[in-house]
Design brief:
Length: 196
C-alpha cells in the first residue's frame, strides 16, 4: 500500500474514531463537525474530503459496526455444524447479542441509530453483500421456500434490536438469559410463518 493511500486511510479512521466517541458521549445532534475534526486533530476541510456531513459518518459507523458484528458471528457459525435453518439463525443471533452485551457502547450507538433504511442500504449497496448473500444461501440450503426473505430478515433484525436494548442495558423487564429463549422462540415462529 502506498504511503498516500495509507495516510488517507489513517485520516478517515481518525475521523470515524473521533465521531464515534463523540456520538456515544454527546449524541449525534449535540456533536458538530467542528467537534469531530477537533477530536481527530484535523482541519475542517479534511472532513469534507471523506464525508458530506455528520449523518454520512454516522451511517458509515453503523455499517462498519454491523459488518464487524455479522462477520464475527459468521466466523463462529462456520466452526459449528448445525442442521436446521432455525438453528443457524438462532446461533447467529446469539453471537451478535453476546457481542452487544460485551460492548454496551456499541449497543447504545447502533440501537439508537440503526434504521431499516440504513441496514437495507448496506445490504443493497454491497457493504453487507457477503452477509445478505450468506443469508440467502442459508435459506436456499434449507430446501424451503419463503414468501418474503427480506421482510423476514427485517423482522428478525428489528425484533433483536428492540428487545435487547433495555434488557442488556437495564436488565428490564427481564435478564438477558430470561429473554433469549422467548426471543429465539419468536424468531423460529417468524421463520415458520414466512415459509410457503
Amino acid at each position: 500500500m502506498s504511503k498516500v493511500i495509507e495516510k488517507k486511510r489513517q485520516k478517515r479512521e481518525a475521523l470515524l474514531d473521533a465521531a464515534l466517541s463523540l456520538f456515544i458521549s454527546q449524541g449525534i445532534e449535540s456533536t458538530s463537525i467542528s467537534d469531530i475534526v477537533k477530536g481527530a486533530d484535523m482541519a475542517k476541510g479534511t472532513f469534507y474530503l471523506y464525508f458530506k456531513d455528520k449523518y454520512e459518518i454516522r451511517d458509515q459507523l453503523i455499517h462498519e459496526m454491523a459488518k464487524r458484528l455479522f462477520h464475527a458471528a459468521e466466523r463462529k457459525l462456520s466452526q459449528v455444524r448445525l442442521e436446521t435453518l432455525e438453528e443457524k439463525v438462532i446461533y447467529l443471533a446469539d453471537c451478535i447479542i453476546d457481542q452487544l452485551n460485551e460492548n454496551k457502547n456499541i449497543l447504545r450507538f447502533i440501537s439508537k441509530n440503526l434504521s431499516w433504511g440504513i441496514f437495507h442500504d448496506m445490504l443493497v449497496t454491497g457493504e453487507g453483500e457477503d452477509f445478505y448473500g450468506k443469508y440467502v444461501m442459508m435459506l436456499e440450503q434449507s430446501g424451503r421456500k419463503f414468501r418474503n426473505p427480506e421482510l423476514m430478515l427485517y423482522m428478525i433484525v428489528e425484533l433483536i434490536n428492540s428487545t435487547c436494548h433495555n434488557v442488556i442495558l437495564r436488565q428490564e423487564p427481564v435478564t438477558l438469559e430470561e429473554l433469549k429463549p422467548e426471543l429465539y422462540g419468536a424468531i423460529c415462529d417468524m421463520i415458520r410463518r414466512q415459509e410457503i
